[in-house]
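pasting input
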Amino acid sequence: MNAESTTPPVVIELTGVEKSFGRQTVLRGVDLQVRKGRTLVIVGASGQGKSVIIKHMLGLVTPDRGTVRVFDQDLKRLKRNDMDDVREKFGVLFQNAALFDSMNVYDNVALPLRERTRMEPAAVHDAVLEKLSLMGLEEAVDKFPAQLSGGMRKRVGLARALMLKPEIVFFDEPTTGLDVHKSNELYRLFYQTQQQLGYTAVIVSHDVPKIFKLADEVALLAEGRIQGCLTPEEFQLSDQPMIRSFVEETMGHLYTSDSEENGFYAQVQS
Amino acid sequence: MTKLLEKIGAETLWVLETAGRMGVFLTRSLASLGRKPFKIEPVVRQVHFIGARSVFVILFTGLFTGMVLGLQGYYTLRKFGSEGFLGSAVALSLIRELGPVLTALMVIGRAGSAICAEIGIMRNSEQIDALECMAIDPFRYLIVPKMLAGVIAMPLLTAMFDVIGIFGGYLVGIGLFGINPGAYFQGMYTSVVWADIEMGLVKSLVFGLLMVWINACKGYYLHLERSGGFGAEGVSRTTTDAVVLSSVSVLVWDYLISAILL
């Protein structure tokens, strides 16, 4: 098969994005593309501005220079209503889940349906319970976010993010602060729901190397630029000095992916 | 010298920036008034929070304000031998000035601070970002119900304050000093005209809007605060600022409205 016919269209494209906060320059010209149905993982040391990239894609932050195009529309030029139309296709799992802390789990997950659709309360009820049971949260329906563990909070956040069948889902540090077991659980849910809904995913993560197994492409952000956007295998074998030093720092010199990868998928699918 | 100029420049910029933000905030809130879906239930809930739950405090302060007006008014008026005007003195000062102003100050302390802290915490914990990403307009969803509730609740609370204050003045004047109750009310009846009520009403409407506007705006733009609005301390500092600023604005606007309407 030739490569061009299999390359899905670009849904998000950042070109030359620069951003400073006060005197601190965070992004110095970021070029990045996200392709439909693929999973892009952005890695990099803490404080490099990985979350800032996601915030640009979400239109929460506007670039000082450069453009952010989502579904072929320049976010900077969009009117509020058109922006809402774009965002309707988004689902976001925030770093701390960003649940509404004065609402219980049920109301949190029901909110997008109540505010964005005209569904009847009974239909909302069914849809919410279905998502919550998919996430294994039946017991937590009446609880408030403060009463949940970190892992449960993330799962509620994921349920809420998936409520409106998004086309692109953003994950900002989905497993930070979770133990290995809880992380695997979240990865399993991610894998399962992506298979089901076929959404495009953009993940910012520290969880190297495990996150590579979910990625179609890995991008390294360092010194305010994307140092390379490669498949996980290429990424680990790359000669680019920064990628190389990142790989060596985070996962040692050698990494054999094939056997581990198959093992991992066998595990997540079970 | 350059340092001083720099400081003056920075302060001026900051004031302009804040003023601009406040303007943008109000415009966006008003623009979101017409955005669909409009839901009545959050407005009712906010009226309950800002209004119904302030009733006890308002009645209490209103009663004592009226009583002290009766006391002070009686001693002052007695010097001129005109104790009979006690009723109109109490009613006019309450309806035109003290009712709206004290009600606004009490409600700012009770509900305004809560509004600022609530929205500030939502900003800090990315809840407002989450709303935006779900394409739910935070102004329509969060701010508009509070603003409507402020404008609905404040005049009602002010009316309660006035009524109970007049009753407080009555208690002191008639109970303590034995003024003729008929004279108390007759004086009021002849001296209070519609323009007085109108002034009180206009003030309470403006104060209701000011209270929500300033407190909600401070909370909403918490992340842009110069002193760094992050964390619990950021929320507490910003809430204090918001309460001070809204209280001062109430007094300034009180003067302005009086000057315009008189």
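fyi The radius of gyration of chain A is 19 Å.
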